[in-house]
Amino acid sequence: MFHRKIFNEEQDYFRETASKFVDKEILPYHKKWEKDGFVPKELWLKAGSVGLLCPNVPKDYGGINGDFRFNVIIIEELARIGATGPGFAVHSDIVTPYLVNYCTKDQKKKYLPKMVKGEIITAIAMTEPGTGSDLQNIKTHAVINNDHLILNGSKTFITNGKNADLVLVVAKTDKSKKAKGISIVLCEAGTEGFNKGKNLDKIGMKAQDTSELFFQDVKLPLNNILGNSGQGFAQLMDELPQERLSIAVTAISSAEAALNWTISYTKEREAFNTKIIDFQNTKFTLAKLKSELLVARTFIDRCIDEHINNNFSAEDGAIAKLWCTELQFKVMDECLQLFGGYGYMQEYPIAKAFMDARVQRIYGGTNEIMKEIIGRNL
Q1: DSSP strand pairing (122-125 vs 166-172)
Q2: CA 231 – CA 372 distance, rounded (Å)
Q3: Considering its fold, how many domains does the chain have in total?
Q4: I need a surface site. Which of 122, 135, 149, 296 has the fewest CB within 10 A?
Q5: Is residue 264 included in any domain, yes or no?
């Protein structure tokens, strides 16, 4: 098979650190976290202590100034063991770029070092009870009142919502405008009027905390708006390609792990006095999945390379998310089938992976929206 050429020696050492960490600090405890519905904050502190959070943060703010390949390694190592609980990707891949690119120096000094250490956990709040992909019509609003903002509204399906110490809230600062009336507002947990709802009961990703957030007359400083008022939608459009690439990397890495579990299982399991892998249907199914994943992996590695060289477009991100998440679910479904009845049992990783995969086609922009983005460029 092809040798992957996108990683350098420093990143290979980083992978060793990440691999040891997930095997020691996550794998033995993940089932408990699935029952609890969240990952303890202590894990974040441990991850921060070995450099697994926010690797893209500049050295001046406590990071290693690494490129996106470091993020990819963390995603791949979590996927290898089927760990979907730690919301590191939201924190490092999705939220961090907004703070690095749009915050003031004082805000960067205040938040980034603690984010790198795991002392501050972050979330981004876009989705609302009545608004999913249609961000231009959100109802949450932040009214400028003299020298401060008054934030009102609610958000739902927010990853890291329970644990979050800092939330990036997408809100309307000018109701008379659509895209140009949107801003991103920083809101710290514990601020008066900011309350967290219950941890939502999902069909998958059971160990990942996902919550409702409520804002009632929350008073915030004016400079809690990232950049200038009305720039939020443009900021989202600039950063969403990386979010979608992160989802695509997760999709392919998780599917590769599932394929490996299935190959091992079919080599051990027998039916009619024959190893399951020796049946032609099994071989053909696995061969096809392996081929499709190799092609997808080659494509994703090219996407990663283009992204770190600033050549990755919104359309590229949409294609990557669409193709890879669709393939992920196909792989999970066909691999589960080869486990037979055991594949339907929660004690088997393939069952959890199947359920975890379903949301990949929904969050980060539904796959229907990805088709719309791609379709605009036909």
Answers
A1: parallel
A2: 23
A3: 3
A4: 135
A5: yes
For tokens 């890879």, name the residue: 324
- Provide the pairing of β-strand 182-188 with 270-271: unpaired
Residue 296: φ, ψ to 5°: -65, -40
Q: Same domain, yes or no, for 162 and 200?
A: yes
Q: Which residues, 6+ apart, have CB-to-CB distance to 336 below 8 Å?
A: 343, 344, 350, 351, 354
Q: Is 298 helix (H, G, I), strand (E, B) or coil?
A: helix
Tokens 């379903």: give the residue. Answer: 358
**pLDDT band per the 50, 70, 90 thresholds, residue 101:** very high
Q: Which DSSP string do the residues of 257-289 spell out, in sequence order?
A: HHHHHHHHHHHH-EETTEEGGGSHHHHHHHHHH
DSSP letters for 101-119: HHS-HHHHHHHHHHHHHTS
- Give the CA dihedral 228, 245, 122, 179, nearest 10 degrees: 30
One-letter amino acid identity for 373?
I
- Specify if 96 maps to a domain: no
For the chain, the first-to-last Cα distance in angstroms comes to 34
For the record, the structure tokens of 299 come out as 């494509």
Q: Do 365 and 240 touch, CB atoms closer than 8 A?
A: yes
Helix (H, G, I), strand (E, B) or coil at 184: strand
Q: Strand, helix or coil at 215?
A: strand
Is the residue at 20 inside a domain?
A: yes
b/e burial code for range 49-67 (CB count within 10 A of at least 16 → b): eebbbbbbbeeebbbbebe
Which residue carries 């008066």 as its tokens? Answer: 192
Residues taking part in catalysis = 243
Alpha-carbon distance values, 184 to 4, 162, 212, 219 (Å): 38, 20, 18, 15
Tell me which of 180, 198, 229 is where a domain ends.
229
- The pTM for the full model equals 0.96
Chain CA centroid to CA 378, Å? 28
Domain residues for the domain of 141 are: 123-229
Distance of CA 180 to the CA centre of its chain: 26
Between strands 194-199 and 141-145, the pairing is: unpaired
Question: Residues 72-95: pLDDT tens digits?
Answer: 999 999 999 999 999 999 999 999
Structure tokens at 152: 């009102």
Question: Which DSSP symbol is given to 226?
Answer: S
Beta-bridged to residue 213, according to DSSP, are: 155, 196
